[in-house]
Amino acid sequence: MAYLNLYKANLEHNYTFLTRLFEEHGLSWGVVSKLLCGNKKYLKLLIELGIREIHDSRISNLRRIKELEPGVQTVYIKPPARGSISNIISFADVSMNTEYYTLKLLSDEAVRQQKQHKVIIMVETGDLREGVMGENLVNFYEKVFDLPNIEVIGLGTNLNCLHGVMPSQDKLVQLSLYKQIIELKFNRSIPWISGGTSVTVPLLFSKQIPRGINHFRVGEILYFGLNLFTNQTVEGMRDDVFELFTEIIEITRKPMVPIGEMAANPQGQVHEVDSTLFGQYSCRAILDVGLLDIDPKYLILEGHDFEVVGASSDMLVIDLGQNERGYKVGDVIPFKLRYMGALSVLNSYYVEKRIA
């Protein structure tokens, strides 16, 4: 049976590394938990580490965090949908916003619930996902700060998540300048300039974070220790917080090319036959995970001496060559994962989640 291990000591190691890093630079930060897909055991681990600000894109996950520890500040990190407004006010202390229409709904609901709701206005800086266009920001803010029970506590931006636009010193300076313009024009303080995500952390190492940036929200670098500029593990961090374990459920010597008339498989793919492999055989193993759990391209094969042939909904096929290592049915094969692979596995009902 396939299962996923979260190594508590390795997570704590990375958390300690980042805590020291941000403290050295005088930065506040929160942890993005959306990767954990609301897993109660894993969310509890975050809280036990001492984290007191958790960000997520699913309101059901924020509800679970509040059930575990009401004192944690929860941040909803995508523009809210109209049908979620009541729950946003109930379970998110802070939300990220880009639409006045939505903010008016949040204001009305906050008044009904007799709560003060904090918001971060997201600013477009080039990646073309969420964000108010810079030329519209002053007028947008002017309308927002009159809304009852709404407190603008920050300006933020998001990069690299859609088109792959990387953060830069210039883009972060631009965000800081928006803060200065608004504060001077309206004589109001904006405490957070939330320009930092996991992809921005490497700019700290090269001292390219402008002084105005004072808040980070990070997930991927905490769980994978990955420098997203170099795709290498950050020196001093761990890349093995998560590990997927799969079991061999069949192993058989088979032809290396399929036999028969070819058509599209259920994924719409038409397999191209390599005629040079006709008549050749190798050992193929079937593992007990499939596309319902993970896309094979997000498995890290470093350290393994086999190739992934492909996957169906519930099974993954690997080519062991002549099986020189002597794999057999029942053997367990571990994999480290890329971020999107871990996200799929954590969202899979069929893979057991463990703490090691």
UniProtKB/TrEMBL annotation:
GO cellular component annotations of the record: cytosol
InterPro entries tied to this protein: Ala_racemase (IPR000821), Ala_racemase_N (IPR001608), PLP-binding_barrel (IPR029066)
Cofactor(s) required, per the database record: pyridoxal 5'-phosphate
Domain of life of the native organism: Bacteria
Species, as recorded: Cesiribacter andamanensis AMV16
One Pfam entry name: Ala_racemase_N
Domain Alanine racemase N-terminal: 9-225
GO molecular function annotation: alanine racemase activity; pyridoxal phosphate binding
Keyword tags: Isomerase, Pyridoxal phosphate
Keyword Isomerase: yes
Protein's name according to its UniProt entry: Alanine racemase N-terminal domain-containing protein
Record flagged with keyword Isomerase: yes
PANTHER family: ALANINE RACEMASE (PTHR30511), LYSINE RACEMASE (PTHR30511:SF3)
